[in-house]
Amino acid sequence: MKRAQFDHDEVLQRAVQVFWRHGYHATSMQQIFAATGLKPGSLYLAYGNKASLFSAALDSYAQLNIAKLDQMITRSENIEAGICNFLYMLIEEAQAEDYQGCFLVNCQLELAANADELHGRVTQHLQTVERKFAGYLRQTHHQDTAESLAACIMVQIFGLRVYSYLCNSKQQLIDTVQKGLPWLQWPSAETAEKTH
């Protein structure tokens, strides 16, 4: 049987959107077929089942966000400024009318009660993000300090992603995150916008 030809990256981006919108459990296969444009045979041949497609979508989303962080660090004056600019970017994303939070955080909350393989995969991706922050911070801090500060950043990101549903004030979000991470040398939000 000839394998169908399609853009896997595009399919995964569409899969992310449908899972993000409805959640893993509430997303039906019919919604997945409609969102990806794939027929059942092609989808099952390429990804196996719903859980496997979800895992691939998680991988794709996580890789894109790690790339965003790396790009922000590279474009910024120094590592701490890059982290600040990344957090400013998350606050900007929260201003969108169709704001949906963070796909990984949403999945972590939805799947936490299951403690299954899918929840473990989400956890691994979030831990990878934390290790990425720690890796950058080890360039300017001792290892134990870097790991502790990376955990502080993750706490702020989790809070920001969820609290943004309640608060749509950009300035309040900025003030709150800055107070939660006072050890960072915060550039102005206007300066940060130039790096996006």
From TrEMBL:
Pfam family membership, one: TetR_N
Protein origin, superkingdom: Bacteria
Keyword DNA-binding found: yes
Record's keyword terms, sorted: DNA-binding, Transcription, Transcription regulation
Source organism of this protein record: Oleiphilus messinensis
UniProt protein name: TetR family transcriptional regulator
Gene3D superfamilies with a match to the protein in the record: Homeodomain-like, Tetracycline Repressor, domain 2
HTH tetR-type domain ranges (all copies): 5-65
UniProt-listed SUPFAM superfamilies: Homeodomain-like (SSF46689), Tetracyclin repressor-like, C-terminal domain (SSF48498)
DNA-binding region of this protein: 28-47
Any one GO molecular-function label of the UniProt entry: DNA binding
Keyword Amino-acid biosynthesis part of the UniProt annotation: no
